[in-house]
Amino acid sequence: MKIIAAIATGALTMASPANAAPRPAVQHYGNPTLNGQALPFSEAVRVGDVLYLSGQLGRGPDGKLPEGIEAQTRQTLDNIGATLKLAGLTHADIFHCTAMLADMKLWPDFNKAYVTYFPEGKRPARSAFGTSGLALGALIELECQAYAGKK
Questions:
Q1: pTM above 0.85, yes or no
Q2: Who is most buried in 49, 75, 76, 135, counting CB within 10 A?
Q3: CATH number, domain at 52?
Q4: Are strands 140-147 and 125-130 parallel, antiparallel or unpaired?
Protein backbone atom coordinates (compact mmCIF):
# COMPACT_ATOMS: atom_id res chain seq x y z
CA MET A 1 0.00 0.00 0.00
CA LYS A 2 2.92 2.37 0.70
CA ILE A 3 4.19 1.95 -2.92
CA ILE A 4 0.78 2.81 -4.33
CA ALA A 5 0.63 5.89 -2.09
CA ALA A 6 4.14 6.91 -3.19
CA ILE A 7 3.22 6.58 -6.85
CA ALA A 8 -0.02 8.48 -6.36
CA THR A 9 1.74 11.37 -4.64
CA GLY A 10 4.68 11.42 -7.03
CA ALA A 11 7.14 10.57 -4.27
CA LEU A 12 8.58 7.60 -6.13
CA THR A 13 11.33 8.59 -8.59
CA MET A 14 13.39 6.68 -11.10
CA ALA A 15 16.65 5.38 -9.69
CA SER A 16 19.82 6.95 -11.08
CA PRO A 17 23.47 6.60 -10.13
CA ALA A 18 24.19 8.61 -7.00
CA ASN A 19 27.07 10.58 -8.49
CA ALA A 20 25.69 10.94 -12.02
CA ALA A 21 25.51 14.53 -13.18
CA PRO A 22 22.45 15.36 -15.24
CA ARG A 23 23.12 15.34 -18.96
CA PRO A 24 22.76 18.76 -20.61
CA ALA A 25 19.63 19.13 -22.76
CA VAL A 26 21.83 19.84 -25.81
CA GLN A 27 25.31 18.39 -26.31
CA HIS A 28 27.73 19.42 -29.06
CA TYR A 29 30.38 17.08 -30.51
CA GLY A 30 33.43 17.90 -32.56
CA ASN A 31 34.95 21.14 -33.81
CA PRO A 32 35.49 20.73 -37.56
CA THR A 33 38.19 22.68 -39.35
CA LEU A 34 39.25 23.27 -42.93
CA ASN A 35 42.83 24.28 -43.67
CA GLY A 36 43.32 25.10 -39.99
CA GLN A 37 40.27 27.37 -39.86
CA ALA A 38 37.32 26.54 -37.56
CA LEU A 39 34.09 25.85 -39.44
CA PRO A 40 30.84 27.48 -38.21
CA PHE A 41 29.08 24.29 -37.03
CA SER A 42 29.44 21.22 -34.80
CA GLU A 43 30.09 17.77 -36.24
CA ALA A 44 27.02 16.57 -34.33
CA VAL A 45 24.48 17.79 -31.80
CA ARG A 46 22.56 15.56 -29.42
CA VAL A 47 19.09 16.63 -28.36
CA GLY A 48 17.39 14.11 -26.12
CA ASP A 49 17.75 10.65 -27.63
CA VAL A 50 18.67 11.82 -31.13
CA LEU A 51 22.13 12.66 -32.46
CA TYR A 52 21.96 14.99 -35.48
CA LEU A 53 25.09 14.72 -37.60
CA SER A 54 26.15 17.58 -39.84
CA GLY A 55 26.57 16.75 -43.51
CA GLN A 56 29.83 14.90 -44.08
CA LEU A 57 32.07 14.84 -47.11
CA GLY A 58 34.63 12.19 -47.95
CA ARG A 59 37.72 14.18 -46.99
CA GLY A 60 40.46 11.82 -45.89
CA PRO A 61 42.93 12.36 -43.06
CA ASP A 62 45.05 14.39 -45.48
CA GLY A 63 42.09 16.76 -46.02
CA LYS A 64 41.68 15.70 -49.65
CA LEU A 65 38.80 14.02 -51.44
CA PRO A 66 39.61 10.60 -52.89
CA GLU A 67 38.89 9.91 -56.57
CA GLY A 68 35.48 8.53 -57.48
CA ILE A 69 32.09 8.22 -55.83
CA GLU A 70 32.71 4.80 -54.24
CA ALA A 71 35.90 5.95 -52.51
CA GLN A 72 34.27 9.21 -51.41
CA THR A 73 31.23 7.31 -50.07
CA ARG A 74 33.44 4.97 -48.04
CA GLN A 75 35.47 7.87 -46.64
CA THR A 76 32.28 9.80 -45.87
CA LEU A 77 30.85 6.84 -43.95
CA ASP A 78 34.18 6.34 -42.15
CA ASN A 79 34.07 10.03 -41.15
CA ILE A 80 30.50 9.56 -39.94
CA GLY A 81 31.68 6.55 -37.92
CA ALA A 82 34.34 8.69 -36.23
CA THR A 83 31.72 11.31 -35.31
CA LEU A 84 29.36 8.63 -33.99
CA LYS A 85 32.19 7.27 -31.84
CA LEU A 86 32.52 10.68 -30.12
CA ALA A 87 28.98 10.10 -28.80
CA GLY A 88 29.54 6.41 -28.02
CA LEU A 89 27.52 5.25 -31.04
CA THR A 90 28.07 3.20 -34.21
CA HIS A 91 26.61 2.98 -37.72
CA ALA A 92 24.05 0.54 -36.27
CA ASP A 93 22.47 3.48 -34.39
CA ILE A 94 21.75 5.48 -37.56
CA PHE A 95 18.04 5.53 -38.41
CA HIS A 96 17.95 8.12 -41.24
CA CYS A 97 20.31 9.56 -43.86
CA THR A 98 19.96 12.21 -46.52
CA ALA A 99 22.25 11.69 -49.50
CA MET A 100 23.20 14.61 -51.71
CA LEU A 101 24.88 13.63 -54.97
CA ALA A 102 26.65 15.97 -57.37
CA ASP A 103 25.28 13.81 -60.22
CA MET A 104 22.37 11.36 -59.91
CA LYS A 105 24.07 9.18 -62.55
CA LEU A 106 26.45 8.21 -59.71
CA TRP A 107 23.56 6.66 -57.72
CA PRO A 108 24.36 2.98 -58.48
CA ASP A 109 28.05 3.36 -57.58
CA PHE A 110 27.15 5.30 -54.42
CA ASN A 111 24.87 2.45 -53.36
CA LYS A 112 27.60 -0.17 -53.92
CA ALA A 113 29.66 1.40 -51.14
CA TYR A 114 26.76 2.62 -48.94
CA VAL A 115 25.12 -0.78 -48.45
CA THR A 116 28.32 -2.31 -47.04
CA TYR A 117 27.97 -0.18 -43.87
CA PHE A 118 24.49 -1.43 -42.94
CA PRO A 119 23.18 -5.00 -42.71
CA GLU A 120 20.39 -6.13 -45.01
CA GLY A 121 17.03 -5.50 -43.37
CA LYS A 122 18.47 -2.94 -40.92
CA ARG A 123 19.35 -0.09 -43.23
CA PRO A 124 18.38 3.48 -42.30
CA ALA A 125 15.48 5.27 -43.89
CA ARG A 126 16.92 7.49 -46.59
CA SER A 127 16.22 10.49 -48.77
CA ALA A 128 18.34 11.59 -51.71
CA PHE A 129 18.60 14.36 -54.23
CA GLY A 130 20.93 15.63 -56.90
CA THR A 131 22.63 18.98 -56.53
CA SER A 132 24.22 21.52 -58.82
CA GLY A 133 27.39 21.31 -56.73
CA LEU A 134 28.74 20.36 -53.32
CA ALA A 135 31.36 21.94 -51.07
CA LEU A 136 34.98 21.41 -52.12
CA GLY A 137 33.84 19.73 -55.35
CA ALA A 138 32.70 16.60 -53.50
CA LEU A 139 30.61 13.99 -55.28
CA ILE A 140 28.62 12.99 -52.17
CA GLU A 141 27.50 14.53 -48.90
CA LEU A 142 25.65 12.53 -46.26
CA GLU A 143 23.64 13.90 -43.35
CA CYS A 144 22.38 11.40 -40.78
CA GLN A 145 20.48 11.07 -37.53
CA ALA A 146 21.20 8.37 -34.96
CA TYR A 147 19.37 7.04 -31.91
CA ALA A 148 21.36 7.93 -28.81
CA GLY A 149 19.00 6.63 -26.12
CA LYS A 150 19.50 3.65 -23.89
CA LYS A 151 20.16 0.39 -25.64
A1: no
A2: 76
A3: 3.30.1330.40
A4: unpaired
Vertex 120: Cα angle to 78 and 55 (nearest 5): 35
DSSP string, 108-138: HHHHHHHGGGS-TT-PPEEEEEE-S--GGG-
Strands 33-34 and 44-47 come out as unpaired
| Tens digits of residue pLDDT in 115-126 | 999 999 999 999
Q: Environment class of residue 26 by beta-carbon count within 10 Å: exposed (0-12), middle (13-18) or buried (19+)?
A: exposed
Length of the chain in residues, anyone?
Answer: 151
Query: Could you tell me the residue range of the domain that residue 110 belongs to?
Result: 25-147
Look at the chain and report how many structural domains it folds into.
1
- Answer whether residue 15 shows pLDDT above 50: no
Residue 129 near residue 102, CB atoms below 8 Å: no
Instruction: Identify whether 80 is part of a domain.
Output: yes
